[in-house]
Structures are given as structure tokens and as C-alpha cells.
């Protein structure tokens, strides 16, 4: 089985190939609540893992190393943990609904405007062509 995780790490995801052993994948968390949820789920599903910590640029990472054969299961757990701890992009419920309704209103007005006058640009081009003759 090819390793599902490349070693090249840009930091967009919270997992990477183990730097010394290509048979292992390392998941990293900054948030201790996410790390605890991840640990709990790994233990529930009886997935073997090693735990560690790493400090980089004054940030402490909680690390979980597991075999690449468990990568797909761990990735599902990782997604579930992120969903459990996610925060809304727009925190206020009232403001969130305002943004949604405003967007729907703008799209509706654009569609109505197009339906009422779909050939406006074509008419302009035809008039310019007729004037040139």
C-alpha cells in the first residue's frame, strides 16, 4: 500500500507523514480539547497510537502517531472531532441570517433584472453596427 500522506507539509492539514518512519502518520493538535476527543475516539475504536508533544515557535503541538494502515479510520475520527469543535464563520445567529437573506435577495434581484431585459447588450451592439453603416 502506498503511503496516503506525502511528507511535504504546508500546514493546511493537521496530519503529516512521520519524519523518520514512512509507515506512520502523525496527527497534530494545538487545541487540547480536540486532542482529548481524538485520543478518546482512537481508544474507543482500539486503534494503537503513540502520543507526544512538540514545541515550535512558542506553540505546543499534541502529537499522535499511528500506523498508515489505520489512516482512513483516523481520518474519519479527525473529521468528526473537527466537526464537534467547529465554530461558526459568522458567530451571531441574527447576523448570520441577515447575511443569508441579503445574499438571496441580491441573487433574486439579479435574476429579475436579467429576465426583464436580457437583450440590452445585444441591442447596444446592433445599434452601433447600424450607425457604422
Please give a handful of descriptors for the protein shown.
133 residues, Alpha-Beta Plaits, elongated, 4-stranded antiparallel β-sheet, alpha+beta, 2 domains
Q: Number of DSSP helices?
A: 4
Tally of separate domains: 2
- How much is the radius of gyration in Å? 26 Å
The helix content is 40-55%
Q: Largest beta sheet, briefly?
A: 4 strands, antiparallel
Find the CATH topology of the largest domain. Alpha-Beta Plaits
**DSSP summary, beta strand count:** 4
- Report low-confidence residues grouped into runs of 5 or more: none
CATH architectural arrangement of the largest domain: 2-Layer Sandwich
N-to-C order of helices and strands:
EEHEEHHH
Label the overall shape: elongated
| Helical/strand content category | alpha+beta
Separation, N- and C-terminal Cα atoms: 70 Å
Largest beta sheet: strand ordering: 1-2-4-3
What does this protein look like?
By secondary structure, this protein is of the alpha+beta class. It folds into 2 domains: 15-85, Alpha-Beta Plaits; 93-132. The chain has 4 helices and 4 strands, in the order E-E-H-E-E-H-H-H. It has helices spanning 32-44, 71-85, 93-116, 120-132; strands spanning 15-17, 24-29, 50-56, 59-67. Strands 1-2-4-3 form a 4-stranded antiparallel β-sheet, with helices on one face. A hairpin with a 2-residue loop joins strand 3 and strand 4 (59-67). The chain is elongated and about 75 Å long. The mean pLDDT is 81.
